[in-house]
Amino acid sequence: MIMSYTGTTALITGASSGLGAEFATRFAARGANLVLVARRTDRLEDLAKKLRDAHGISVTTLSKDLSRPGAGAEVRDELAGRGIRIHTLINNAGFATSGPLVEEDPAVIASEISLNVASLVETTRAFLPEMLAAGKGALINVASTAAFQPVPGMAVYGATKAFVLSFTEALAHETRESSLRVLALCPGATRTEFFDVLGSQAAAVGRLQSASAVIDTALRALDRRTTPVSVVSGFINRMLAGMAQRLPRHISLAIAGRAVQD
């Protein structure tokens, strides 16, 4: 069953490039109106125009730094003031840092935790009541294969994504009696600007997937009669994630450390 989102509105954070832009393209093709949120206004406007022209949908753009406390609630209030109700929320915004923690900039890692964790929770809480009331749509939180084991050399990033996975799976159980589909999407290394921001390809464990392939995984999960609470994109990534969960903790820790730091 291929789900249609005609007549609904999807809010996508981190929508100016990479997985966010691909999510926007694919949901637009399925008929959803869009709210695109990111910091880069010019990219948002370019994408919005392209999607309006291609699909005849409504696209609202908001330039926001979601790492600021309260930004998620600001987005909700601004949209409510325009009469826009959200049916689907895709929390995609996030970034990574790398290197030993002792060498990382405290201000940067504070921003990483704020965006990857605090903002995701705040935005989810802000929009969850209206999504549950709507009786349709989805909540997708983008985690990572880094969520399945500690990641030396990317300790903060791995921990934030472990939080996202745990939080989303728990929320899926809490809302299981509703019609809202809740999914934690766990991609591995993906061909996006992620590694440009990170400043290194060292963390690109395994073969890089395209953004399109990752979104295919998410949409297939949403199209199932019963959406799983989490899904890993890519066969090899699923094998590695499963192995990390089954191995003794100290062994999976050592393997992850070698993979990222070598």
Would you give an account of this structure?
By secondary structure, this protein is of the alpha/beta class. Helices cover 50% and strands 13% of the residues. It contains nine helices and seven strands, in the order βαβαβαβαβαβααβαα. α5 links the parallel β5 and β6. α1 crosses α7. The protein is globular. The model has no long low-confidence stretch (mean pLDDT 91).
Give a quick rundown of the structure.
This protein has 262 residues and is of the alpha/beta class. The protein has helices spanning 18-29, 41-55, 71-81, 106-134, 155-174, 194-198, 211-223, 235-246, 249-261; strands at 9-13, 33-38, 59-63, 88-91, 138-142, 181-186, 230-232. The protein has a single domain, classed as Rossmann fold.
Strand content: 5-15%
CATH architecture: 3-Layer(aba) Sandwich
Distance separating the two termini: 43 Å
Strand order of the largest sheet: 3-2-1-4-5-6-7
**Class based on secondary structure composition and strand pairing:** alpha/beta
Largest sheet: 7 strands, parallel
Family: Belongs to the short-chain dehydrogenases/reductases (SDR) family.
Organism: Pseudarthrobacter sulfonivorans
GO molecular function, one term: oxidoreductase activity
Protein name: Oxidoreductase
Entry keywords:
Oxidoreductase; SDR_fam; single chain; oxidoreductase activity; Rossmann fold; alpha/beta; Sc_DH/Rdtase_CS; globular; oxidoreductase
